[in-house]
Design brief:
Length: 233
Amino acid sequence: MKNVFKIFPALILGVFFFSCQDNEEPDTLLEQVGFEGTLPDGSTFGTINIRSGNGSGSMGANGKFTGRHILSIRTFETKWSLSLESPSKPLPDDTPRGENVSRQQIIDLFNTHYPYEDLWQVFISEKSKADSDLQYTSFDQFKIQLSNQEKYYVYSPENFFPRKGGKIRVLAVEEGLVKNLSGQDVRKIEVVLEFDIPMKTNDPSVAIQEGNLKGVGRFRYREDYYQGEFERR
């Protein structure tokens, strides 16, 4: 089955150094979507004019299907895109697939079988674990990937074999409402996470092959899967 949106060609986040120790919380939770910290190549992502969108993805094997949510942020000049992938959940055996499946069919599928409430509980559960154990990491629950949209290469923890692990901690989860293009209220979730993850590129021509994604990012999920911010040039 195809992804709902082609937000990331391969999936997907500054120079701000935190003065806290490894077991202390960051000083900022960010007030808007973006990423504050350093990227694997030592550059920055930023928190100004950052675009946000969310989509979904699915996999099928032996007649069984699973689906996951993908929350993405992108720099305004569309150079960098950072995506957070949720844990997977089962989808029905008759999950529609193929070129003729409409966007609305996929939205309805996920709003039924991996709805807002389930995603909220994923984030709340991971935050509770992080709050009760300062050493806890959600590395095995979420996937994170940084894509360079200009030169089409990716930094990912998955490019290490074996994977090196790293820190992903849910710091805050917020609910709210936004207006869609028709002026109707749409539910949203914003989640703030702390990262300190070794990542490696998949392109041997890239000058800096590996480095850590280190900092704090805020991502947004909208129940209507609005992608208009990503489409603006």
